[in-house]
# Entry
Amino acid sequence: MSTLTSTIFFSPSLLIPARTKPTNSPNNQVFFHKNDHYLNRIVPQKKRASFCIKAQEQKVEEGVPSATIACPTVRPKFVLFGSSIVEYGFHEGWAATLAHLYGRQVDVVLRGYAGWNSRTALRILDKIFPKHATQQPSLVIVYFGGNDATHPQPDGHGSHVPLKEYSENMRKIFNHLKSLSEKTRIIFLSTPPINEKQLFGDSPPEKLPKTNESHRIYSEEGLKLCKKMNIKAIDLWSKVQEREDWKEVSFIDGIHLTNEGSKVVTREILKVLKEADWKPSLYWKEMAIEFEEYSDTPIGPGGKPIDPHTTRFPLGVEWD
# Structure
C-alpha cells in the first residue's frame, strides 16, 4: 500500500468505500472517486498529492457527484433546552407536536437532560450553544426549575439550587442565548405544578422532597426575571391548573406531563409565536414552506385538494 501512486488498485481484497464503483476495465481495476475521504486513511502523506492530482484527471463515473453542493438548503432551527420536561417531550408530547407542525419548515432539535438543574445547565451551556457555530438557532425554548425547586437534603446532595442562585443562573443562561445572534429568540417555560398525592402516594415521607408550593415559588422567580430581561415567558404553573381536573389528567407520575398536560404547553408556545412581533415571524402558518414551488397537490372528487402542503393534522384538529 505504501507504493500506491496511481488512481487504481489491482487487489480484489481491498475494502472499497461505498461511493467507489468498479468500471468495466480489465483485471478488475477500480477507480477511486476524486473527492473520497477514504484517501486520508489509505494513502501516505508524501504520496497523497500525487494520488489526488492523478485522481482529478480521471473521468468520474456518470451519476456520482463530483463536488459538494455549493448552497445546501439550511432550515431554521428550534432548540428545546431543559430537563426531563423537555427530554420526555416526545413521549406524550408537546415537543413531538411542534416537530410535526414545523415538519416542512424547521428542524426541531431536542436538548433535554433529565435530572439537570440550572447549575448543571450553566456549566455546559457553551458546549450546547457555542457562540461561533456556523448556524445559530432561530428559537430556544428553555425550561429549568423543577429540579432546582427540590428541597435541600441534610447531606448537601440532591438537585436543589437556592432561589437566588437559580435566578442568577437563569440570567446567565438567557444572556448567553441572547448573544448567539440578533435573530435568536427565547421562550421560557416556568416550573409547572405537581400532583403531590400522585407523586408520593398515600404514605408520603414526613418531609416531602418537593411540593407544589416550592414549584410556585420557582415559577414566579423565573417569570419575574423574564419580565426584567424582556424575555417571552409562559406561566406553566398557572396554565396547567386552569382545568378543574388538572390533577387527574395532567401527569404521568405526578410530575411529567401526559398528552393532556402537553397540550397546554403546545398551545401556549404557539400563542406566543403567533402574537410575537418578531421579524421574521416564527409562527408556523407564517413561515415559508420548504420546496413549496415543487409541490403538486393532488385534486380529489369535486375539485378539492388532497393533502395540500399546508395540512398538518386530520380534519377537526386545530392548533390556532
Q: What stands out?
A: Residues 1-60 have pLDDT under 50 and may be disordered. The chain is about 30% helix and 10% strand. The first strand starts at residue 8 and ends at 9. The beta strands are 8-9, 30-31, 77-82, 107-112, 139-143, 185-189, 232-234.
